[in-house]
Amino acid sequence: MTTMPYPWEVYSQQLSQTDCGRAMWNPDRAQPEITIGDVGFIGQEDGVFRRLFNITRSPDDPLNQPFPLPRDFQKLEYNSILDSNLTNFLERGLMSQNVNCVDSGLNAQAENEPGVDAKEIDLRFTCQKSQGALLFLDGGADRRVVERNDVWIRYIKNNYSNWIELLGSIGIRNIELVVVRGWVKASAWAMAVWPDQNAAEHEITLSGNGSIASGGVNFQVSERSGYPPDYHVGPQDRQDTTSISDFSPPIARDQCVFMSYIKVVDRTVWSSVKAQAGCFSLPPVGGESGKNDAIHTVENRDPLDDLVDYIFWNTQAQYAIVSDVDLEELCDYEQPPPDFPAYLRNRAPRFDMIEDAAYLSIFDNIYKSSALNEPTYGTITLPRFGRTPIKWPHVLLQNSTPDNGWGAPSPAALSKNGAFVAIGHEDCGLRVWNVNTGKLSLQLRGHHDNVLCTAFSPDNKTLASGSSDSTVLMWDIKSGRMKMRLEGHDRAARVWCVAFSPDGKIIVTGCVDAMIRFSSVATGQTYAIGEGHYCVIQHLLFIPDGTLMISSSDVECRVWDPRDGTGLSVMTGHTGVIWALCCSHNGSKIATGAEDHTARIWNIATGEELVTIRDHKAAVWSVQFSPDDRKLVSGSCDGSITIHDVYTGDLYCTFRTDELSCFVHSVAWSPVGNLIAGGYGDGTLRLWDTTNGKMVAELRGHEAKITSIMFSPDKDTIVTASYDGSARKWSMFDIMKVY
Fold first, then answer.
1. Number of C-alpha atoms within 13 angstroms, CB side, residue 452?
2. CB neighbour list of residue 614: distance below 8 Å, 6 or more residues apart
3. What is the average pLDDT across 684-693?
4. 390 pLDDT tier (thresholds 50, 70, 90)
5. WD repeats span which residues (predicted)?
6. What one-character DSSP code corresponds to residue 428?
7. CA pseudo-torsion sign 40, 361, 152, 334
8. Under DSSP, is residue 199 helix (H, G, I), strand (E, B) or coil?
9. 588 torsion bin: left (phi>0), alpha (psi -120 to 50), beta (else)
C-alpha cells in the first residue's frame, strides 16, 4: 500500500538542504515561539515543534513552568561568544533546486531567492521534478544560532537520561528529543510545496500590488488534474484569508521558519526508531516515482539518520549526538549527495567520545577552517575536562622566507580596527602583518638603529615608529611610504615610547633623556617639551577624550596638558620602577604596576592614590582595567594573576598555575570581561574564567616570553607577540567551542 507524504515532510526535506537549518511548515503553531535552548519534539502528523522545557533558562522562568522539570535540572551556562546573530539573514525567501521562477525577470539559480523589490509582484513558479518547495517572506528574516561546541554536547549527554526519565513519568514515549540551538525568524510568510509528481504539474502564481507588508499577495494554482500543491500563509492572527496583505507592517519577527537543532539517539532503541521511520524521517531529494502511480511511496530518510548509522557501525558508542550543522560541515556547506552513506564511508569522518557518547569531531572542523589561513600548531590543555594536550591551530604571523635575523622585537602594536599588527626589530626594520590573512604586509626600512616602539594612528592609516637612532618616522599603511620624519630629538635620546592623541592630531614621544616631546602630526614640528622626569620615559598614554596625557618614569607618573605640554600633577608613592601603566575606559583613573610588588590606582584629576594592592610577592609587570572599569587585573613575576575591586581594593580571585617559577609578563581582559588572557615567561598563553577562577585553556606556540596580548575589536581573535620575534593569532571563537 502506497502512502502520501505529509506536506510538512516534503517541505522540510526540500528546504532543509541549505545552511539555514530545518524548514518549519507551521511556524505560527509553535506557541510560545521557539527559543534557543528549547528541548522538545516534532509532531509526527503536523511537523510542529512542541517544547517541554528550556535548558538556557532558570527553573522559575515562564518557559519552564508548563511542565515538570527533569530531575537535578540546572541551567546551561555557556560563553556568549558562541552566539551568532545576523539581521536580514534572508531577504525574501528560498526555493528548492527543483523549483523554477518564470516571468519574473529573476534568475532562479542566483541565490535561490525569489523576491523582488518592485511594487508589483507577479511571480510564477513551476516544479521541474516530482517534489519542490517554496518560502516567501514578508520583509526578510533574522538568524540567531549557537555554534556547535563541547559545552552543549556535554550538558546534553550528562542530562539526557534524566530527560528520558521525565518523559516516561508524564506518559510520553517513542519520540526523538531535539534541542534547539538556533533559528531563522520572520514576521510573516507564504509557503508552498509540490508533494508528488502529479502536484508538480501544477503552476503556482504569487502576485499582488505594493510591498509584502502593505500590499495584497495571493497564491493561485493552475487548473490541472491530480493532487494540487499545498500552500498556506501566516501567521493566522495577522491575516484573514490565504493572503498576507490584510495586516499592518510587521513589528516582531517571531515566526520560526527554520530551526537548528541537536538530537541524541540511543543505540538500544535505534532499530525500532528506524523501523518506525522516526519523526525526523523525510523523503529523498527529487525522489522519482513511477509514471503510472497516482500516489507514490516516499522513503522516510533523513541524512542525519545515515550519520547515526555510520556512528553506530564504526564506534562502540551507546549514544550518537548529531546536529544539522554536522551535515553542513561534512558536506562543506553544500547539499548532501544522493548516496550520503557512501559519501560518509569515503570521507571517513572522525568522532570524539564523551564517555559512551560519540559525536562529530569539533577539532577536525576547527583544523579545516583554520587551514584556510595556513596555521601552525601549538598545544592546548583543558584541565577542566581532564584532557591531555592536543594540537591547536593558530596563525603564525611571519615572513614567507626563512628568518633573516631580525633580532629582538619591540612591543607589538595593534591597529584600532584589529586589521594590522606592527613590530619593530633590532635589525632597524619594522614589519606589519595582516591579521586576517597572517601574511606579512609591509617591511619598512628607514631607521639606522633598532626600532624600540610602534603605534598606529586612530584612523588606522598611519604607523609611527621610534628608534635608538633618536628619530620618529611616520609611515603610510596603505603604500608603505614614509610620510614624515620627526626631528627635534637629541642625538643620544633614544625614542623609547610613542603615542597618538585620540583625534590623531598630536604625537607624543618619550626618550631616554627623560624628555617628552609634543609634536603636530600635520607638520611634524615639536611645539612643546615636557620636563620633570629624571629617567627614561617608560610609558605614554592619552585618556580617552584626549584632554590629558600620562607619562611614567622610574617611580613616578606625571599628568600633562597635551595642548601646550604643561605639567599638571605628579603621582608618587611607588618605591620601585613602574613597569606597567593603563587608563580606565572612562578616563578618570590610571593603574600602575611596579618593582615594589604593588599595583596602585590613582585619581587622574587630583593625582591622589586611591588603592594600593599588596597581594603580589614580586614585581608587577602588567595591569589592565576591566571593560566596566570596576575591576583591575594584575600580573606578576611571582607567577600569579589577581583581580581586585577598583574602589575597595578587595581581592576577588587569584589565578596561578602549578608552574610557580613561570612569571606573568602581560595580561588582558576579553572585551566582554569574562576571560583573562595571561602571557607567561615560557611563551605560554593561558586563558582564565573570571567567574569561577578556573583555567580555560593553555595555548603553546611561542618560544620565549609573551610581551603583548591584544584582543581584536570583533572579540574573536587574540594576537600575541613574543620576545622570540614572532606574533601569533588565536581564534577565541574556536577555543570557546571546546570550552
1. 24
2. 597, 598
3. 87
4. very low
5. 444-485, 571-612, 613-654, 664-698, 699-732
6. S
7. negative
8. helix
9. alpha
Structure confidence at residue 350 (pLDDT): 83
Q: What is the DSSP letter of 29?
A: G
Q: Which residue, among 141, 137, 87, 100, has the nearest Cα to 116 in the 3D structure?
A: 137
Average of pLDDT values for 99-124? 54
For residues 13-36, average pLDDT: 81
List the beta bridge partners of residue 220. 205
* Cis, peptide link before residue 32, omega less than 30° from 0: yes
CA angle 425, 431, 436 (to 5 degrees): 135
> Is residue 274 within a helix (H) or strand (E), and if so which, with residue range?
helix 267-276
Give the CA distances from residue 540 to residues 5, 219, 287, 454, 472, in Å, rounded to whole numbers and listed in that order. 71, 68, 69, 12, 15
214 burial class (0-12, 13-18, 19+ CB within 10 angstroms)? middle
The residue among 362, 460, 456 whose CA lies nearest residue 411 is 456
Contact 397, 435 (CB under 8 A): yes
Kind and range of the H or E element at 162?
helix 150-169
The burial class, CB within 10 Å (0-12 / 13-18 / 19+), for 80 is exposed
CB-count burial class (<10 Å; 0-12, 13-18, 19+) for 544: middle
Nearest to 193 by CA among 244, 245, 130: 130
Using DSSP, state whether 342 is helix, strand or coil. helix
Cα dihedral sign, 484-486-491-496: negative
What is the structure's pLDDT at 659?
64
Helix axes 303-314, 340-347, angle to 10 degrees: 40
Q: What are phi and psi of 159, to 5 degrees?
A: -110, -5
Query: Per-residue pLDDT tens for 629-677?
Result: 999 999 999 999 999 999 999 999 999 876 655 799 999 998 888 889 9
- For residues 634 and 645, the answer to whether their CB atoms sit within 8 Å is no
**Sequence-ordered alpha helix ranges (H) in 319-452:** 324-330, 340-347, 362-370
Give the three cell numbers for residue 400.
614567507
Distance in angstroms (rounded) separating the CA atoms of residues 15 and 332: 17
**Residue 534: all three cell numbers together:** 629624571
Cα dist. 493→26, 307, 470, 487, 510 in Å? 74, 68, 5, 11, 9
- Strands 429-434 and 413-414 come out as unpaired
> Which range has the top average pLDDT, 86-95, 455-464, 687-696, 721-730?
455-464
The three cell numbers locating residue 12: 522540510
Residues 6+ apart with CB under 8 A from 372: none
Closest by CA to 590, choosing from 554, 617, 557, 614, is 557
> Which DSSP state fits 169?
H
- Give CA–CA dist 17/10, Å, rounded: 12
Q: Cβ(39)–Cβ(68) under 8 Å?
A: no
pLDDT tens digit sequence for 262-308 = 999 888 877 555 554 433 332 333 333 333 333 333 344 678 888 89
Which amino acid appears at position 269 of this protein? V
697, 739 Cβ separation under 8 angstroms: yes
Dihedral (CA of 253, 256, 257, 258) sign: positive
Per-residue burial over 617-635, b if 16 or more Cβ lie within 10 Å, else e, is eebbbbbbbbeebebbbbb
Domain ranges of the chain: 7-263
318: which 3 cell numbers? 551507546
Instruction: Give 295's DSSP letter.
Output: S
Let me know: does 108 contact 165? Beta carbons within 8 Å: no
Summary mean pLDDT of the chain: 80
Cα 219 to Cα 245: distance, rounded to the nearest angstrom: 12
